């Protein structure tokens, strides 16, 4: 991983203006923020800069306004929630550049915090317009990126500003990059990856990249059915992308070539209907799935065997559930394997990094979210990192 500057590299910033890119794209209901996770993630960086005497200007997007102002997507709506988490008063500035921002900077005292308006109200944001970048930068002395979740976008506030101002990684960004480096950059071997989810098509690039990076690839969820079908298994009515069995075989062949062992379920939980605790529920060998049944989870013996695989590994990266975990009892495999990973992490034998929306929800459901070494709340950025792609917002911080 390339070297990058962090807040530890800052000199005296008293009275200087910090332009800080954070993720305030928060879930809302009836005008109120329903989940403060992203604010809490950015809080250490914001409060540290404020404590050092900087004037902190927060840059963020909210929704998809497509370059037009919208009262329902104004960041003024999140100010109260940010103040609650930070425990400090926060000014709202209805612009991101120009005289209004300059005047607001003049009003702010060292240690004060302001949120600028939704950056996506300006068409130049998503186009990474050099003129907009210059205009925003004119009101700042240095730039801090603390929004890994937006680092896969080369936008004005996620990438452009890092080229025109001294640039630093915030504490959340720093923690994310260090965790990801431990997971796939320079990991302790052997390395295991758990990849689940509904469709192979959504994670083709992830799978193709991982077989050359890890020692064990555990495939679960609906995508496992496509691989089983590729190996000649009749998966009945299961969710399966039969048109991708050729691609699945190519991935399996690539795994063989690189010495990666691919683990597919040999025991499965099936049902004739997808419903909670259906009467047709049964556990069987994968070769015994009837034509009118669908595979909805990995069986307990197979999960135990996968747990034994994790016990031989030093590093784990996880994205996606093992079964249809939102519906009981098809959460059993995900919960069991997550608890095994958490226990191995707790005893110090495994570095565990997980990410993606469904994955985070599944680990919270299993009650082990706080027991993994690191959990990334980033969606697209985490997936693109797993695909081995360079993230523009991260690359721009490199020194």
From TrEMBL:
User: Which pathway does it operate in?
Assistant: Carbohydrate degradation; glycolysis; pyruvate from D-glyceraldehyde 3-phosphate: step 2/5
Keywords from UniProt, A to Z, are:
ATP-binding, Cytoplasm, Glycolysis, Kinase, Nucleotide-binding, Transferase
Pfam families (alphabetical): PGK (PF00162)
Which positions bind ATP?
203, 326, 356-359
Subcellular locations according to the entry: Cytoplasm
* Gene Ontology annotations of biological process type: gluconeogenesis; glycolytic process
**GO CC list:** cytosol
Gene Ontology molecular function terms on file: ADP binding; ATP binding; phosphoglycerate kinase activity
| Cross-referenced InterPro entries | Phosphoglycerate_kinase, Phosphoglycerate_kinase_N, Phosphoglycerate_kinase_sf
- What residues bind substrate, as annotated? 23-25, 38, 61-64, 120, 153
Top-level taxon in the UniProt lineage: Bacteria
- Catalytic reaction annotation: (2R)-3-phosphoglycerate + ATP = (2R)-3-phospho-glyceroyl phosphate + ADP
**UniProt binding sites for (2R)-3-phosphoglycerate:** 38, 120, 153
Coarse class of the primary localization is cytoplasm
- EC number(s) per entry: 2.7.2.3
Q: Which residue positions does the secretion signal occupy?
A: none
Family designation: Belongs to the phosphoglycerate kinase family.
List the HAMAP family.
Phosphoglyc_kinase (MF_00145)
Question: Quaternary form?
Answer: Monomer.
Name under which the protein is recorded: Phosphoglycerate kinase
Origin organism of this chain? Answer: Novosphingobium endophyticum
Q: In the record, what lineage is assigned to the organism producing the protein? A: Bacteria, Pseudomonadati, Pseudomonadota, Alphaproteobacteria, Sphingomonadales
């Amino acid at each position: 991983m390339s070297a990058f500057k962090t807040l530890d590299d800052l000199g005296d910033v008293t009275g200087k203006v910090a332009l800080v890119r954070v993720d305030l794209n928060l879930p809302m209901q009836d005008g109120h923020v329903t989940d403060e996770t992203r604010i809490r993630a950015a809080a250490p960086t914001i409060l540290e800069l404020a404590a050092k005497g900087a004037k902190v200007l927060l840059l963020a997007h909210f929704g998809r306004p497509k370059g037009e102002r919208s009262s329902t997507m104004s960041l003024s709506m999140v100010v109260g929630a940010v103040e609650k988490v930070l425990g400090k008063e926060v000014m709202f500035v209805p612009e991101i550049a120009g005289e209004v921002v300059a005047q607001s900077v003049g009003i702010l005292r060292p240690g004060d915090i302001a949120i600028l308006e939704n950056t996506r109200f300006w068409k130049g944001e998503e186009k990474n317009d050099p003129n907009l970048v210059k205009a925003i930068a004119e009101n700042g002395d240095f730039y801090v990126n603390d929004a890994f979740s937006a680092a896969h976008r080369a936008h004005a506030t996620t990438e452009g500003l890092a080229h025109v101002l001294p640039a630093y990684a915030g504490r959340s960004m720093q923690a994310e990059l260090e965790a990801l480096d431990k997971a796939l950059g320079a990991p302790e071997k052997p390395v295991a990856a758990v990849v689940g989810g509904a469709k192979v098509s959504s994670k083709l690039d992830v799978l193709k990249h991982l077989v050359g990076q890890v020692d064990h690839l555990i495939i679960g969820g609906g995508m496992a059915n496509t691989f089983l079908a590729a190996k000649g298994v009749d998966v009945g009515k299961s969710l399966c992308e039969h048109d991708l069995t050729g691609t699945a075989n190519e991935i399996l062949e690539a795994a063989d070539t690189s010495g990666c062992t691919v683990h597919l379920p040999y025991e499965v939980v099936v049902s004739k209907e997808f419903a909670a605790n259906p009467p047709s529920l049964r556990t069987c060998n994968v070769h015994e799935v009837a034509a009118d049944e669908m595979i909805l989870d990995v069986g307990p013996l197979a999960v135990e065997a996968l747990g034994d695989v994790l016990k031989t590994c030093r590093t784990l990266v996880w994205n996606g559930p093992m079964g249809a975990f939102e519906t009981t009892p098809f959460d059993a495999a995900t919960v069991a394997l997550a608890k095994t990973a958490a226990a191995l992490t707790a005893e110090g034998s495994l570095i565990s990094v997980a990410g993606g929306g469904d994955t985070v929800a599944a680990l919270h459901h299993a009650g082990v979210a706080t027991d993994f070494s690191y959990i990334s709340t980033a969606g697209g950025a985490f997936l693109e990192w797993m695909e081995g792609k360079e993230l523009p917002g991260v690359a721009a911080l490199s020194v």
